[in-house]
Amino acid sequence: MPTPPATSVALPLQDSFGREIESLRISVTDRCNFRCLYCIPDENIEWLPKGDLLTFEEIVRLARIAIELGVRKLRLTGGEPLLRKNLPFLVEELAVLPGLQDLALTTNATELVRLAEPLAKAGLERVNISLDTLDRENFARMAQRDALPRVLEGIDAAEAAGLTPISINCVAIRGMNDHEALDFAELARRRDFEVRFIEFMPLEHGHRWGEHSLVPGRELRERIQERYALAPSPDQDPHAPSRDWVFEDGSPGVLGFIDSVTAPFCADCNRIRLTADGKIRTCLFSLREHDLLAALRSGEDDAQVAARLRAAVATKELKHHITDGLFVKPERTMSQIGG
Ligand code: SF4
């Protein structure tokens, strides 16, 4: 595993298409306490052995190196990140890294009643909560866990702890939860939440994804607009995967549409991912990975690791191929990448 030549850290972390990488998503575990039908439906999952997981110390070191190269935003993901023991300790270590501008977490909220306060105290700024249905029976059907009340309590705890704005991520699947689009819009209005509808992507275990299960974001937006007039958000972040809309009647709440399949945003992509076992993925749909764990554990110094990160970014894919006939499904599933 030859080490790429070191280059000046002054140079921005850029891919071969000129996109600057400012966001690093860090998966801290592949484990999850849900069995969402569109993600990991089976009970008998072989999790990564503990010894193969990045330690907190290794995560902090890689995050520090990435920030020195230009990353400004960190997002902690899983599996379900709050299943990783002592996560507030990791948050505390990351939150003080010089140059960091944003530290967020994506969670299914089941552990937030217990952890929202400690996470906020440790320096976490905000949370995205994965919530695909507001109907208890449908929740039990989709996640194969009767956990909706606990999730809603977790959302309240996050709000009370100041982990705001609260973003709700809803993966829309035809015939499963797309009939609840208006209910989610009303949740956004009632609680001043950012509700984001995410198009179902072909990263599931098994073969559930297809034209039959995909609900284009445009279709959901049109359904909601039959009841509420929407306007593009004046605060749209050009690099954000979500296209945000606000209610024309001035009601609080934002609706976001992450149309990864039908309206890809790859041209503005500024993200890379670090898997729980220390691999860099330059795209959610990458077919190759770059092993930083082996580099760390073989004693490479920061400059060598930085050179590896830069070399990985240089190979970042232009876009995904879901709709152009060239798509090859990656081996890793969403639960092993972390979204
Ligand atoms: S598909 Fe890949 S390139 Fe496109 S936005 Fe997602 S991570 Fe970026």
Write up this protein.
The chain is an alpha/beta fold. It contains ten helices and twelve strands. The chain has one domain: TIM Barrel, CATH 3.20.20. Helix content is 28%, strand content 16%. Strands 7-8-9-6-5-4-3-2-1-10-11-12 form a twelve-stranded mixed sheet. It starts with 22 loop residues before the first strand and ends with a helix. It binds iron/sulfur cluster (SF4).
Please state roughly what percent of the residues sit in beta strands, choosing from under 5%, 5-15%, 15-25%, 25-35%, 35-45% or over 45%: 15-25%
* Count of distinct strands: 12
Which class in CATH terms? Alpha Beta
Ions and ligands: iron/sulfur cluster
Give the termini distance in whole angstroms: 28 Å
Biggest sheet, open or closed, and with what strands and sense?
12 strands, mixed
Considering the protein shown, what is the CATH homologous superfamily? Aldolase class I
**Fraction of residues in H or I helices:** 25-40%
Structural class given helices, strands, pairing? alpha/beta
Radius of gyration: 19 Å
Shape verdict: globular
Number of domains: 1
List the strand order in the largest sheet. 7-8-9-6-5-4-3-2-1-10-11-12
Please work out how many helical segments DSSP would assign.
10
**What do the pLDDT scores average to?**
94
User: What is the N-to-C order of secondary-structure elements (H for helix, E for strand)?
Assistant: EHEHEHEHHEHEHEEEEEEHHH
Poorly predicted runs are none
